[in-house]
Design brief:
The structure holds two protein chains of two kinds. Chain A has helices spanning about 1-50, 70-85, 90-95, 100-110. Chain A is mainly α. The chains are: A mainly alpha, B mainly alpha.
Amino acid sequence: MIGMNMEPKRTPLVYALAFAVALCAPLLCTTRALASDDLGKKKADEACAACHGPEGNKPITPETPRLAGQQYDYLVQALTDYRKGARDNAVMSAMAKPLTKKEIGELAGYFSRQQGLTTKR
Amino acid sequence: MHSNHMKKRYGLLAISAAMAFFLSASAWAEGDPARGRARAQMCAGCHGIADYRTAYPEVYPVPRIGGQQAAYIVKTLQDYKTGARKHPTMRGIAATLTDQDMADLASYYAGNARK
């Protein structure tokens, strides 16, 4: 009788431990991706949102482009071109100049993951 | 007296008709998405393919333009036409476009027709 009482007490603990490990495993795996996305979002909120809107999806003037959903490679190209002067815009050249290659990648990654622009035929 | 009054009325009518014509003409200059769609065939070869990269004359990632701001599209096309923005293919294409063509294309890609 004592043994039978012990069984149901131990089983939930084992399940709880297994559950905790199962919860943590995917968290550990995605930490790097999340951190990178957070950095992109932080920078975007600080530097880009004032003109391009939250998530790059609500520009403040008609001539300011929407960035949400834009292709990753195109965003990298645009920021890199602004930074080295191959593309010229007074505001964007100044914004892009201090960006590192890593920051450009994080920003492009963040904006490309938002819902917005589409490939329209 | 009566005919003078009528003349005034006809004059007013003529002025308002002229104004209506002028206003509709300027409204048309804002861009017609249907005309833009017909013109967009020349764009679809690159912009209609998801994640497309040009191979010639240089490797360049082609942007998504569905849902882009109409005024930004017009400005970009004008910049390509004047050479302020440099891409040989886009410059060649933009050079063939009138202001009206640009407005029509921008209207189509911005998705004004869906509103």
